[in-house]
Known about the structure:
- Helices cover about 30% and strands about 25% of the residues.
- It has helices spanning about 20-30, 50-60, 85-90, 95-105, 125-135, 165-175, 190-205, 235-245, 265-270, 310-315, 335-340, 370-385, 395-400, 405-410, 425-430, and strands spanning about 1-5, 15, 40, 65-70, 70-75, 110, 135-140, 145-150, 155-160, 180-185, 210, 215-220, 225-230, 250-255, 275-280, 280-285, 295, 320-325, 345-350, 355, 365-370, 390, 415-420.
- The relative contact order is 0.15.
- Helix 6 runs parallel beside helix 7 (about 190-205) and helix 10 (about 310-315) runs parallel beside helix 12 (about 370-385).
- The strands form six sheets. It has a four-stranded mixed β-sheet, with helices on one face. It has a four-stranded mixed β-sheet with strand order 2-14-16-15. The protein has a four-stranded mixed β-sheet with strand order 4-5-3-13, with helices on one face.
- Ligand EPZ binds near residues 22 and 166.
Amino acid sequence: MEKYVINGGHPLKGEVEISGAKNAAVAIIPAALTVNGICRLENIPQISDVDMLLTILRHLGAKVRMINPSAVEIDCRQVSLRDSPYDLMRKIRASYYLIGAMLARFGKAKTTMPGGCNFGVRPIDQHIKGLTAIGADLDVRNGFVFADARGGRMSGGRVYLDKVSVGATMNIMIAAVLANGKTVIENAAREPHIVDLANFLNSMGADVRGAGTDCIKVNGVERLHGGTYTIIPDQIEAGTYMIAAAATQGEVLIKNVIPKHLECISAKLRETGTEVSESGDSVLVRGASKMNHISLKTLPYPGFPTDMQPQMSVLLCLADGTSVITEGIYDNRFKYVNELRRMGACIEVDGRVAIIEGGHRLTGAPVAACDLRAGAAMVIAGLCAQGRTEIEDIHYIERGYQDMVGKLRNLGADIRIVEYPDMEAAEESLEIG
Ligand code: EPZ
């Protein structure tokens, strides 16, 4: 087993390079199933969710060749549905994109219900509503999702999403690209990774228009050809390092970003008194010795991202006064607060609202990552806490952050990965023995 060990109190200084966007890559990789040719993807992040999806494609018969650590060639022309790796599919949320991709390619699909971080109910009813509207019959039973295109090919159609859903928007888009007709998705999500998926599909010969607005139109085509596509930088990784710089009162140049994607994060950081300046494809963040309390609510893009909520909570523990964070997307995304309380945080949670009493220095403690972004928040807490913090369950963090320890050490952080015995496994083996 591995954990992070952090000795806090070192301001982050220097430059950090942002990697490719996880939530773009985990949609684009399954979408390669719709391409009748070789897809070369550049700037893919080296994270376990990407590894998992490439492994799933290999199990389905795709040829997957790593060109270098951040570039891969995927050839799905020999793929069949004979032996889908259901044990892998159920481990990640993005496996639901395989439904849309298989429906587009084969006119049928069988996957597991998706896995992913657990912060409340995460249904897929909007995926089902949309895929049904454009020509598929879906059935969820025994933990599996079964889908069949009526007549063997998706027909296109119109759907109004009852909830702004990133996953449903992208899944319907993927399923629609080879449909025998036109698809209109209304009340669509507008995140940067949705635009990136549309740009990828269009670079392979699809006809997707309006991505980034709340109305996306897809004219189905007969086939998609191969090509090369470079994935955008990760908005949430960039935001995480921005907050880490602010929380440690450091000065960090965050490179390879699209400042437009960070506008809401930059705006809220400036409200705390943190200095954020943009130039080209970089943002410079200078922490303030005294920070103001603020209020925010997480919203679909271009609002403040829910995936930045735990990280911002840590920062606001250090601000003067009382801050309020309202979680506008998920029912229960404050589970990490109990871990932060072990480090001295004063946060009260009532449903979707967290009241954060600032002005308290955090102190190091043994804690655990409860999900991907909560884990990143615990790292930030450890970086600015007094003393030593140990973080277990770091596999969550490694699902979405490329080489976080290496990048932070380059910025002067005292953080390292430490092996420790898996006592639970040892006890189990003793019981068995
Ligand atoms: C994507 O999840 C991201 N994951 C999440 O990032 C992110 O938090 C979320 O979008 C919101 O931005 C990936 O892209 C792999 P949604 P997704 O569908 O698609 C409800 C991270 O840390 N909903 O936009 O599952 C849902 O319960 C991860 O990188 C339905 O009710 O999110 C939620 O309350 C965590 N029915 C809201 O909509 C549905 O059919 C938004 O969910 C679908 C969603």
